[in-house]
Every structure is written in structure tokens, then in C-alpha cells.
Amino acid sequence: MPRSKSVTSKDRSSTAVKSWEQDPALQQLLLSLTMDIARVTAKSELMHLMKERLSSIFPFTHCTISVPSQDKRFYKAFMLDTSSIIKGHEQYQELVTSEWPVGEDWIADAIATGEPFVCSLKEMNEKGQLTANMLIIYEAGVQETLNCGLLSENEIIGVLSFFSKTSGDYSSAIFPVVRLVASHISLAVVNIMSREEIEQRMREREAMLTLSDAISRVKDRSGLLDIINTELKQLFRFTYSLVVRFSDDGLSCAAFLLDPQSTSRSDPNYNEITSRWHTVRDGIIDKVLAADAPVLIDTEKEASRADAPEYTVMQFRAGVKECVGVALRDGSQQALGIILFCADGKGWFGENAMNLIRAVSYQLATAMSNIFYHEYIQARDSENEMLLSISHAIASISDRRILIHRVKKTLQTRLKFADIAIVQYNLPKGTYKTILEDCETTNQHQDFETIAFREYPLQDGLHNVVMEAEGAVLLSVAQLQQRGGIHFDFLADAGIAEIAGVRLIHNNEIFGGMVLLAEKAHSFSASDLRLIERFSYHLSGSVANMLASEAIQQREKEKEILLSLSADIARTRGTEALIAVMRQRLRSIFHFNDITVGLFNAEKTAFRVMVAHVGDGRAMHPAFKEIAFAEYPIADGIHDILLHSDKPELFFIENLLMKNPGKHPGIQFIFDQGIKEIAGVKLVNQNEDIGFITMLSEERNSFRQKDLHLLKGVSDQVAVAVANILADEKIAQQLMEINGYKEKLEEEKLYLQQEISSAYTYTDIIGAGPEMQRVFHMLSQVSFAQSTVLILGETGTGKELIARAIHNSSPRKHKLMVKVNCAALPASLIESELFGHERGSFTGAVERRIGKFELANHGTLFLDEIGEMPLDLQVKLLRAIQEKEIERVGGKSTIKTDVRIIAATNRNLQKEVAEGRFRSDLFYRLNVFPIVLPPLRDRKEDIPLLAAHFMERFARSAGRKNIKLSSTAMKQLVAYNWPGNVRELEHVLERSVLLTQGSVIREINLSAQPRSDIKVKQEEDFTRTLEDVEREYILGVLGKCRGKIFGPGGAAEILGMHVSTLNHRIRKLGILKEQNYIVRKP
């Protein structure tokens, strides 16, 4: 440090000493000053003497005395000159009030040596060596200081400093004088310090007594705050105070007393930080708690920590430099809280202040304990008053909403929470669900309705604890989340941090619980939990009585509804009537737009809507019927849940679509049509899940949970009704099937009668020649197979007999062989004849009729003259043969058939295929096993056998015996070419038997037989049977009278026959009603 050159000059120092010893006037002055200093008792007197006497010895603008701390690390002003030139500097107050570290300034040198020395601020400034406090002094105009240590018992107790505005005012010549004066001033300073210490102790003792008296009268927080800001500020210096309290478990703390003079109040986070609980393990609170004495806290240092407490950072931003914290303990040394004294400057809390803070902490702890007690008494009185009031108030409330709202508002006058809920326990099932709630916070969450009213297991970590606890319990939502549970995740997501719960007991039985939901942790104190417990005793009775009353009313209402519904359902006879009754009755309970009743399939893998009542807008949608009544897989998020649930369920359509977008067109359709919510329940009849009821609403939250259980009772009755309807439909279907079987039996009976009348039997196949033996061999090969058979041969060769022989030898012989002559039916009627038709499918179809395919089911269908079938029908026939299913004309469903096909034709089908008159695919399908019958001209060896067979049959039929053929006649028969084959031979012999007068036919009149050059058409006309002629004749008459049978102009009158006889002939000849207007053209 730059000093005056005279400081190191021993010669000048010696000269100065000699001059002082040789100056009598100066000696007298110093003697007088010494004597006056000895009488000084106050700082002001000492300062006055120093300025008055020493200014005549050496110049100075002002002087000061500074004293170091006990460890000599800091110093502060002890005695100030009121005429100091530094007072005008803006940092003067900081300079004279703060503690400054002992560093590179004159204080350090004075403490180190105790000897006088001069310090040049000007030179130090030029070298940049001025400390912050020295810079303030230099900026005020001081150029040079004269300093000397004050010693007492060889220990530095202070530093005496003189200040000059001019450089060079001080030399070593005055050092002896300064040293001499400093020794006497040291004694005066010691005396003043001792006196001030005594006076300070007296003031502190008096203040402590006053404080003790004041504290003994403190009963509330504001009173304690007044004492801190008045009495304590007289004892030591601080800017503001903060008192915090500890939680019952000692792990958290919160503000207890907030000083309105706090500089932190302007911080934007002040209210949020001071209104919640903080952990005590923050590096400051726990340090204060661990110490036996007050702890000095460097705010800047603590705020710079990465994990600095929020309140410390806030204090630092508000200008707080340091704090002192001390624990407040009761008589049992239990920590009640701590008090923090905050200062805007450093060095405010010296040793004396720290001792005082420690001393007052005991009395502050007593005051805090007294306040706790008074607040407890007040809270208890207030609780009693509140409980008495609420007990009277809720005793008469029967409305749920009013009850829970009143309870919430009452409790919120004493407790800090957001939402309240009351749950009911189902102890046999081990579950609980919410029955009362007032949740203005959590009901803002989109999943509130879905989550809040579900049934949850009691062993969820919350209500099992509530149920088993003697009093109210406090639980953290974060800890509950660790146990798992969507309701805890929901609460956390909705902003709930803490839950206070208490069980509800009535008649010594636990029936439910009440939970209070708080958004902040540590919202409930121990006293709050005691209040909640006491309140639960009053609430339990009211809730239990309300539930009992509601249960009685609900049972009566449900009984009335179910009885009414039961009576209405009992009168219904169909699905439309059932859905109308359900809609009318259920709308008095539920708010819905549409209602449906549906069925599960037998395997429970799919479902379909059976009947629905929907709004006109949806019903008019072009795709409504196709979508609404289609069959869907059961795993759609609705019907699979209904199937596996024993209770009604609630579904939100938007949520379902978000989880499975694009997967379920039916659900997407109803959502697009405005449906938001569905309530449903399955239908169970005789322990079988048969279907479901669903109610659809265009609004969310349309269905109340408390009403949904009624849907279960409704479902029981509807299930019976649906089962009855299904049974009725089954009976109706069975009756239809029975009628179908009756129709089929009638058809079979008629057909069999016709077949019997045709007089064909298996024994009618006669042939001993090699040609027929080959036919018999092929017949034996194919009879027991299921293959399609194509019989080829000329007209009259016996194709139908071969077909019947194949049928009678097959496993289908006990079923019908149905014959269809494709050439005998008009093209417009062949399809109806083969496949049947529904009533009203075409003009004249006055009733339903089964076709030949159905009639021949499990039997054989003989398609005679297959080559005459129209091309357009050949396609349908091919499909029926290949797919084994048909569809009636005018029908909407297919019918499975099991029919063996035998076809016959006199045409060359290969030629027909080549010329485009017969489909090749049908030909290949029929030509599986072809049998070609030889013409009679190629098997003349069989003519005698055939003639004998026919003669015997016709003779017996004509009532004649022993009619024989002469050899001449037999030769005629053998010699004839027989273009009509066996049928021509049969007719010739029948005519001969009828015309002969004796017992021997001597000659066969073959002159009437057509020549070989006669057209085929004439041949066909000639070879027709009497039955064909009779059928054509009757058809002609029926066509002429337009189908009229009886009455004037009817067919019976024209034919001269009785009506019943004509009807019999019509049935026998196989004439169909569709043929009444048809006359076969020759």
C-alpha cells in the first residue's frame, strides 16, 4: 500500500520526536487532551474533543473509529464524524452501516501493526488498488488518510483514521503525537464500549421482559407479527421476517406468518410459493433444524445452487442479501417451525444480534405454541358449531344433489379441496361405486363419465385403507398410481394430487366412504383429518337414511314400471308391437332416440338386429336397412362386452371409433347419423344368451348410472317375449315346413297315382337278345352309383322304363322318381315346373308351389326329351345340377337339393351341340354314363316275347282270356320294320285285341301303319297313346272355355261329364292349372 516517504525515514522520525519533546505548548495541549479524554463517557464527547484539540496539531476534514469483528475478518464503523465530507456520497449509508471484509486497505495494516501510517488513496487509485469502500471515500474527495491502531491489553480493538482532501498533509513527524493520542483514545473507547455493553444489556433485558410480557398475551398470528415488527426491531436490525410451520410428520413446512413488509411480495410467484407446502430437506431448513444456534444464510450463495429452494431464489431476486434462521421448539424440544430474519445488506447480524435471536427464539416458540393451542380451541368450537349446524341442515335433505352440494360448501369453509365424492361399498362383491359427487374440477376431463361411475374393487389401495382405518386417512395420488388403476391415472391427469378419505358407518356397519380431492399436496393437516372424521359421523346417518328412502321409492317405481311393461309385453304378438311397447315405456325413464332388439348367432360369434325403432331421418337413409339389419362379427367393442357382462353397459361412440377407426362400419354409420351414446344389456332366457337391447342417444351423458340397472329387469321380460316370438316364428316355420311336406306328399301321392295308372313296371323290360343284354349289363353297373345317366334311343324304345329300372335298383328306390317331359311343357312354364314358384311371382300364381327338383329331393329326377329344353333354361338347369341348389321363381333364397339326374332324348345331342341348339357344358354334364337303347328292328328276336307280354296284359285288361296270335300274324309282326319301335308294337297289339272277335288273332292289319316315307309328324300323330289323345282333347276344351270347369259353358257341360269325374281325369292325366289356357299344337 503506498505510504508517505517519511514513513521509512528514521532521521526525520527522530527529529520529529525531539521537536515534540522540546515544544512546551504542544506538551500542555496533549496533557490537557489526555485528561479530558479520561473523563469521556460517550462517543459524541470523544469525537468533539478529537476534532477540537487535534485539528490544531495537524489538519483533517473528519475522523472515524472502526472496530473489527472478534475474528478480525470484518470491521464496521464505531464512531462517525457528523461533519464528514463523505456524507454526500450516494453510498454513504451502505459504507457506514455494512460490515466490510478486512482486505487490502488501511484497516488491515492498522490491525496488523498497530502503528501510525499514511495511506495515499490517489496513488492507489492510479494503480487500481482501491477496494469498494476505499473507492467510495476517494470519490467523496479524500486524497490521504492517517491511520493508527487502538490497542488494549496488546490487542487491537479498533482503528483511528483521519481524512484529508490534500495529499502530503501528513508526515512521520506527527506519528509520535498520533501514537500518544491513540493510546489514550483506546482507553476511552474501551470505557465507551463497556458502558454501551452494559446499557445494551440493560436495554435487552428490559426489552426481553417487555417481549415476554407481550408474548404472554399473544393469542393469534397478527398479534405475534406485531411484536416481531415492533419489539424485535428495537433489539436488532432486519428488513422483514418469515415464520414457517412444520407438518405433523415433520417432513414438510409451510408459511405460518407472512410479513406485509416483505420485499418479496412484488414477486409474481409470491402467492403461489407462500401458499403451498415445501420439503424441509432443501439444504436450508434442515440445516437450521440441525443447529443448536441461529444459522446465518448467504442468500446469494444459496440461490445460485442448482437445487435452490424456490423461496430462496425469490428472496434473492427481491434484494435479500442474508438471512438468519433459528428453530422454534416447544418445551419437549419438538420443532414447531422456524423463523427467518431477512436483511437487505450484509453484516447486519453480528454476534450480539445472533445472541439476541437465540434468546428470543424461546419466547417466540412459546408464542407459536400458544397460537396453535388457541387456534385449536377456536377450530374445535367452530367445528362443533359447524357440525351442529350441518347436522340439522342435512337431516331434512332428501335430494342427492342438494345434499352433496351443501356438504361440499360447508366443508370448503374450513378445508381446501376441489371435489367431493361419496361411494357405496358392496361388501359381498368386494366392490364400490360412486353414488354422490360434486366434482367441478374432475368433471372437466373428457373421461369423467366413463371413469367416475364405474364399479371398482375395494382392494385398490384407497378404499380398503379408508374402510380399515379408525379415522380419516390421507393418501397421495402419485403413490396410488404405483398400485395401478385407471381411476388413479384419471385423477392424476385431471390435476388431483391428494385424497382425504373417511369411512361411513351406520348401525355399526360400514356401508360407504367419503373422499375429498385436493389439487395440491399437503392440503390437509392433522386437524383437518380430525374434522373430517367428526363430520363423517353426522353425514353417515343422513346418507344411509337417504339411500334407504331412495331404495324404497326406486323399488316401488321399478315394480310399477316392470308390472306395466310385463302386462303390455304379454299382449304383444310380434317384433313390431314389442319394440313399440318398449319405446313407449322406457322413454319415461331413459332419454334415447332409437332402440333396437338384436340376436346373437348360435356360436355367439356374430349378431344381427332383429327389430328397431329409429328416427325418420335415419330410417330414410338409402343404406339404412342394408347396414342396420346386416350380420356383424360380435367383437366390435359393444356387443362382445354386452355378451360377457351381467349388467347394463354404457358406451361412447366417439371413444370406440378413436380406438378402432374404420373397423366397424355399423358403428361408423350410426355415429355419422348423430348417435353419441349407447346403453345396452344382453337378453338371457333359460340361462342362454340369446340377444341384446340397445338404446341409442344423440347426446352424451343421456343415461344415468342409477337408472341403468332397471334395464336389467326390463331385459328379463323382453328376453321371455323375444324367446316366445322366436318360438312362434319357429312354430310358424315348422307349420310352413309341415304344409310344404303336406304339399309334397300330395304331389307325391298324385304323381304315384299317375305312375301306377301308367302300368309300367320293371318287368315290362323284356329282351333276350344280345342288344338288350348289353343294356341290362350297363344298367346293373350304374344303378347303385350316384352318377348322372343319359339314355339315348329312338321314340318308343323304352327310355322311361330303363330310367325307372335304374331308380328302382338304386339306394334311392324308397324315394320318388319324378318325371318331367321337357317337350310336353311350354317354354314359359318349364322353369316353374322344375324349380317351383312363389305366390304372386307371375300372373296366375295364386299359391306357392314346389317344383320337381324339390319333389324329387333325395330321389331321382327323370328329364325326358331333354333335347327339347330351351337354351336359356339349360343354363339354370346346369347350375342346379352343379351347385345342387335351386331358387323358386319369385323367391329370394336358395334351396339345397339332393337329386340324381337321369335324362333321355331321341335327338343326336352331339349334333345339336355342333349346330348351337344345345349347350356343350350341359351335354358334358349329362353325358357321364350314356346308355343307347337299340330300335326294335335291330332286336326282332325279342318281338315274340314282347307280343306275348302285351297280349296277356291287354287281354286281362279287356276281360278276355286265351287270346293268341296265329303264326301268320306273328310272321307279319317280325317282318314289319317298326318305325315306332316297342310303343308302336304295343299299340298295334292293343288295337288288335280290342278288334278281334275270337280267341286267335289271325292277321295283323298293318296296312293302316304309315309307310317309311310318311313324314315324321304323321308318324308321331299315329303313334300317340290314347292317354295323350285324351289329354290333348281335354286341354283343348279347357282352353276353349278359358279354364272354366263347372257351370254353364264349362268344360264339364261341354264334355257331358260330372264335375268330380272331370277333376279326377284332369289330375290323372297330369294336367296343371297353369296349362288351363294352353292347347298343345299338333
List keywords for this structure.
1082 residues, 6-stranded antiparallel β-sheet, disordered C terminus, DNA-binding, 47% helix, transcription regulation, single chain, 6 domains, Beta-Lactamase, alpha+beta, Homeodomain-like_sf
Written description of the protein model:
- Residues 765-994 form the Sigma-54 factor interaction domain.
- One of its GO terms (biological process) is regulation of DNA-templated transcription.
- Keywords: Activator, ATP-binding, DNA-binding, Nucleotide-binding, Transcription, Transcription regulation.
- The protein is an alpha+beta fold.
- It folds into six domains: 5-200, 2-Layer Sandwich (Beta-Lactamase), CATH 3.30.450; 217-378, 2-Layer Sandwich (Beta-Lactamase), CATH 3.30.450; 396-551, Beta-Lactamase (2-Layer Sandwich); 571-731, Beta-Lactamase, CATH 3.30.450; 758-934, 3-Layer(aba) Sandwich (Rossmann fold), CATH 3.40.50.300; 1025-1082.
- Helix content is 47%, strand content 18%.
- The protein has 41 helices and 35 strands.
- The strands form eight sheets. It has a six-stranded antiparallel sheet.
- A hairpin with a 5-residue loop joins β7 (240-246) and β8.
- α9 (221-235) packs antiparallel against α14, α20 (526-570) runs antiparallel to α21 and α35 crosses α37.
- It is rod-shaped.
- Residues 2-18, 757-762, 1008-1022 and 1075-1082 have low confidence and may be disordered.
